[in-house]
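Re: export button greyed out
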Amino acid sequence: MIVPPSLRRSHDPVLPDGRPDAYSLGLDAYGNEEVYAAERSRLFHPAQGPLFVGHASLLDGPGHACAESDDRVLLTRAEDGEVRAFANLCTHSLRPLVRSRERVSHTCVTCPFHQWSFRRDGSLIGGRDIELSAEQRDRLGLVPFPSREWRGSYFCGAGAAGAAFAEDLRMVESTFEAIGRSDWLDFSDWSLVCTEDEVYEGDWKSFMDVYGDCYHVPPYHPGLASFADCSTLEWVFGESVHLQVLELSPEQGRRSPFYTSWFDGLRSYYERRGEPMPAQSVIWSAFYPNLMIEYYNGLRVISVLVPTGPTQYRNRVRYYVPPDMERLVPGLPAAILEAYGETAVQDRVLNETRHEGVAMAAELGLDVSTYFPNLTDPAPELGTVHFHAWWRQRMGRSVDGITVCDGSACDGSGCDGSACEDGPTLRR
Ligand code: FES
Ligand SMILES: [Fe+2]
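Workaround output, generated via the alternate export path:
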């Protein structure tokens, strides 16, 4: 066991006997206009959170920019480095201030329509040909959202600033520390090698369903499975975060030429650096609802989900490699991206067929469970179960015949109370 049991217990999903599908979301949860609208106001609302809104590489100097995950959020970075989040709305007459992917590097942002200007701290400087009292100026500053920075990632909403999310982040740090990989968390000096903006057909939850499913890796990703050993899978759960920790496979990537190049290239890379090769192949992390950071041996990937409707979403992806990798092992970054791309093409099929199948079952009016996870040790689909439990709790949706208990109104019946303090559990 590579992750201490004390770290693995905090938010492990609790399932009633014989009901591995207890948290499975109903057919009506996917591709549904009403559910999508509720998700926008409960899960993707920048005042609620925790919601990932951007990474330091987007705002690498003072200025203003639209959040990469949400055009409704304006991020500013001050001279002292502090990042703040605001509603991206001019307070004169509510027009968006900064457009998607626009970057403003002046000391203030000026709305073009009537030239109202706002500082990086959100305060209003003034507008064209208008006298404003000090009280009016105070009241008409940009509307702020609470926010938190962690390892170069910015999250906003009350949830981001709250104690539970702080605890989740501590859990992530503790896990990396416990396996001797704290250095993997900081990749601020790594080189950005490419970005992608991919459109997917389906409900955004299909992507998270697949991300929490390690069960498909051996049968459907032979190359990846010969690089990352799924028999070593360890889960770590927070309230709105999960981690999958996997070691390198003894197969050394041999079931795909790209993964073979990745594995062999890593060996050369560490030899040339005079360092032992880390035993881990990858730590996959998911921060619900919209961020995944993948810490591979030799690669970091940031994926941001941007839902654009009940049946479509974007995945914004950024790839980083160590700054000395190309110099020490020429061609290795390109080989790693080829390997990752091989798996990503397969995952697109998994994501889109999940949506296709759920939509088909709904159209046929079938009365079926939408997910029956494999929880046989090492429970390769426990991440999907955890995501479904989180979604139900946040959306206020109970499970058939079972109450989702957030601990706030627990009367103790059918429940020993032990899990309530740690998050949602079930009682019959
Ligand atoms: S809408 Fe921005 S200045 Fe009028
Ligand atoms: Fe996959």
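Residues 286 and 292 are 4 Å apart (CA to CA). The button fix ships in the next patch.
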